[in-house]
Give the backbone structure.
Amino acid sequence: MSDDIYREIILDHYRNPRNKGKVENADVTVHDSNPLCGDEIDIHLKVDEGVISDVKFEGKGCAISQASASMLTELVMGKDLKIVKDLKKEDILENIGLTNLGPARIKCALLSLKVLKVGMIKYYSENDPQSADQIRNESSLY
Amino acid sequence: MQRSIVNSYELRNDFPIFRKKINGKELVYLDNASTTQKPYTVIDSITDFYSNYNSNIHRAVYQLAEEATNMYEQSREKIANFINVRPEEIIFTRNTTESINLIAHSWARTNLKKDDVIVITEIEHHSNIVPWQILCQERGTRLEYVGVDGNGFLDLEYMIELISSRKVKLVSLSHMSNVLGTIVPIERIIKIAHEHDIPVLVDGAQSVPHMPINVKNMDCDFLVFSAHKMLGPTGVGILYAKKEYLDKMTPFMGGGDMIKEVFKFHTNYNDVPYKFEAGTPNIADVVGFGAAIEYLEKIGMENIRKHEIYLTEYALESMSSLDYITLYGPRDTKYRGGVISFNIADIHPHDLATIMNDHGIAIRSGHHCAQVLMERLDVPATSRASFYIYNTKEEIDKFVNAIKEAGRIFKI
Ligand SMILES: Cc1ncc(COP(=O)(O)O)c(C=O)c1O
């Protein structure tokens, strides 16, 4: 029920998003939207020697999509870019503490992961084309 | 406040879906602008058709096929009577969207030239925008928009100015906004357009289900609407066009039923309306739509309109007592149907719809297939509640309580 979804932490990340904005000289910027509800997310990535040295997001939409994006940036900041390929739906739902969302709302929660994965693949295609294909194949969509 | 003549508490028993529980609560269905629920008479008429009359129409001479053909054509007559036109001016399509596409394909594509102008408005549903964009790309015709104010009222002065220019060859507009509920002064616009010999297409998807429509008085050249928004089944749309237009229109799809004689390299087409109904149509659902029309006529369209005014006024009054609600659309129900778009502080409509669902309440959230209007209103999304005959005052109380509950959860 909604009281379990819209807990303090979700509302906090919705109203005070972490890592929101642009990254100076980003290596990649990716945008996507969810046509059902119009949620929008942009993710900017800066990568140094394979490590995510900065990640920020911009977006508008429901509390779930925006809080999930905010929490995802915290999760991957400073991590090896390659770990993005292994992130799954369950990891995200656990990260935001919402494991009982219905199918329509799960899409909101996963939008930022989808954008981040596309960003990772784009980064490798531009900077390391040889491993890009392999990473694309290995990357679980959700 | 006016009282309602429609006894919605009693009517609800005619609709099996209201026995269903959502999250242990009674279903409060407030998404009627999207699609409506179906009464037993409609559901039963479809079962009855398949059980007792099923066969293809217009093709065979055996009894069953004659009965099926009669039922299909009787529906056409009921619909024609309902809007006061002749049966041969009614064409069955799949939905409003297909009806508009049919006009774009079979009339506009052959009658409009490069630089001819089609006038639409900022309140249009995507189905009255995209077909014209496609046509413009193909033919080099141009699209012009009549703007609206924050309540969805058209800039009539600009509309008149446009209409007076010789380039305009079609005015196509919604009779009632599916987002704001705003009712357009359609008869006045049609009169002005006709003074300049410009035909008018009326998107009646939101008006025909909710108020009396008399095409003879309105004098529109084309009228389109969907059965599923007026208690009928999905998969049936209506295109009304004046006979003089139908006679000049080229076919939409080619195939069986729309022909008189087929030769190796050419075909003589069937008479209207069959010329525009290629292939086996949605026979059972057309019959079901006939049952829906009978049901609506029994209640009376005037009474339905009054009931919705009553509910809308009650809802607007209850909602405006909450200071964190932003209401969109006209306040005077003379100019408004039973549709209320709103926003609550910083709660995204999608989150509100999720909270409403806890209470068994179905409302819509998003852009409502009207992104041009959303842009004009400068809001990315709204929540929308829309009413019909089976909605009650008590349901509106539940709805307003759920709004307060959302305010509590979001700590507003
Ligand atoms: C004003 C208006 N026009 C057109 C449509 C499209 O109707 P359909 O989806 O049945 O083709 C709708 C339905 O949402 C509508 O509200």
In short: The first helix of chain A runs from residue 2 to 5.
